[in-house]
């Protein structure tokens, strides 16, 4: 509690120094309040977000404080509405759990302005509520994306360097912080689409239990690729420009390289390596991603066709509980192509991006 109050007080002072008096007033009120265990606190205008943890009885051991400017609210609302409509187009069988008129996850795009306690040295790009993952099957999920940290930290320190090192200049030109943020903000919502259990004669069985070792790669690949399909659909409906959907696609492909590299260095769980191998491997196999002397070149129209087929297969496996086809998919593509291995090794030496969180990254000075 002392560390979090210090962080909030410092953020309030920085807000005063930069002329953000309204924000400073809210932070000062928060900093003077007695710490209480809560998960999400918003004021009447829903523009101050506070997340504390851990999710248990007793005082919190860390605290994140975020600000939701009007531009972020509009961005979040548009994504939520678009994703809610997009999910109706998916091949989800009758009776499978889903919301007809609203997304099962809320998207909150905020700017991180203070971080205290156990998290004060972290630059994690987001979080979700409820913090207790066991409750996610029964409660609506809220995904919080710290846009400033995503751009300055994750994108600026890791995603962009990987893209510049590996991608053909024509492809790298479409790699943007906007595309990365859009992809990241919607991919977690993709986990909630489709059935949450596999129907058996003995009753419903959670996917994690049913698929075992294949569960992680399947759900990661499904979310990664489905997020790009969602933005393609938004572009087709005129919500996005086609160029924005291109940026999302290139960001997703770059992130597959990033995740594979971070797995090789122990920064990401092993399931990401298999998921990345599936996502990139099918593009390479179908000549939608080709290695050239200038780097990996992405054939955008062909890549969309290939990943559309991959989404269809992943959804069929997920909805039917076809473990045999899950095993076949991992056997076909789960081990990366030798050319992909050399590319992953070429970026594995990049320094970790989760360094010290600095006020300049947050734009407070």
Question: How does this model look, in words?
Answer:
The protein has 365 residues and is α+β, with helices and mostly antiparallel strands. The C terminus is likely disordered. The longest helix is centred in the last third of the chain and has 23 residues. Strands 1-2-3-5-4 form a 5-stranded mixed β-sheet.
What overall geometry do the principal axes of the alpha carbons give?
A: globular
First CA to last CA: what distance?
Answer: 25 Å
Please bin the fraction of helical residues.
40-55%
The largest sheet is: 5 strands, mixed
Low-confidence stretches: 34-46, 97-102, 356-365
Percent strand:
5-15%
Helix segment count? 13
* Strand order in space, largest sheet: 1-2-3-5-4
Structural class: alpha+beta
Radius of gyration, in angstroms, nearest whole number: 21 Å
Write a short abstract of this structure.
The protein has 365 residues and is α+β, with helices and mostly antiparallel strands.
Chart the SSEs and their pairings.
Layout: H1 2-17, H2 21-31, E1 48-53, E2 62-67, H3 70-86, E3 105-117, E4 126-129, E5 141-146, H4 147-166, H5 169-172, H6 177-190, E6 197-200, E7 203-206, H7 207-211, H8 215-236, H9 242-264, H10 271-285, E8 289-292, E9 295-298, H11 300-320, H12 323-333, H13 338-347
Parallel strand pairs: 3-5
Antiparallel strand pairs: 1-2, 2-3, 4-5, 6-7, 8-9
Helix pairs in contact: 1-2, 4-6, 4-9, 6-8, 6-9, 8-9, 8-10, 8-11, 9-10, 9-13, 10-12
């Amino acid at each position: 509690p002392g560390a979090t109050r210090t962080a909030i007080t410092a953020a309030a002072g920085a807000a005063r120094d930069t002329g953000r008096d309204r924000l400073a007033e809210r932070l000062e009120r928060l900093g003077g309040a007695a710490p209480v265990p809560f998960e999400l606190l918003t004021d009447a205008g829903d523009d101050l977000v506070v997340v504390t943890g851990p999710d248990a009885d007793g005082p919190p051991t860390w605290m994140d404080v975020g600000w939701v400017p009007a531009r972020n609210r509009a961005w979040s609302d548009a994504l939520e509405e678009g994703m809610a409509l997009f999910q109706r187009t998916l091949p989800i069988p009758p009776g499978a759990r889903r919301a007809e008129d609203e997304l099962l996850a809320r998207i909150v795009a905020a700017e991180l302005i203070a971080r205290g306690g156990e998290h004060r040295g972290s630059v994690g790009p987001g979080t979700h509520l409820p913090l207790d993952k066991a409750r996610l099957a029964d409660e609506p999920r809220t995904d919080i994306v710290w846009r400033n940290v995503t751009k300055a930290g994750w994108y600026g320190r890791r995603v962009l360097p990987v893209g510049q090192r590996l991608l053909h200049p024509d492809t790298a030109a479409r790699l943007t912080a906007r595309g990365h943020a859009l992809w990241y903000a919607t991919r977690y919502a993709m986990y909630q689409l489709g059935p949450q259990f596999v129907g058996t004669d003995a009753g419903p069985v959670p996917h994690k239990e049913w698929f075992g070792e294949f569960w992680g790669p399947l759900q990661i690949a499904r979310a990664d690729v489905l997020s790009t399909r969602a933005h393609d659909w938004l572009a087709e409906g005129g919500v996005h420009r086609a160029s924005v959907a291109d940026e999302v696609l290139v960001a997703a492909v770059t992130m597959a390289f990033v995740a594979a590299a971070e797995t090789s260095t122990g920064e990401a769980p092993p399931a990401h390596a298999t998921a990345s191998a599936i996502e990139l491997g099918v593009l390479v196999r179908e000549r939608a991603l080709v290695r050239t002397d200038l780097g990996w070149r992405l054939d955008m129209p062909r890549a969309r066709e290939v990943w559309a087929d991959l989404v269809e297969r992943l959804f069929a496996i997920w909805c039917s509980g076809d473990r045999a086809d899950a095993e076949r998919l991992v056997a076909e593509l789960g081990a990366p192509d030798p050319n992909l291995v050399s590319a992953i090794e070429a970026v594995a030496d990049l320094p970790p991006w989760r360094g010290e969180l600095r006020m300049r990254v947050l734009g407070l000075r």
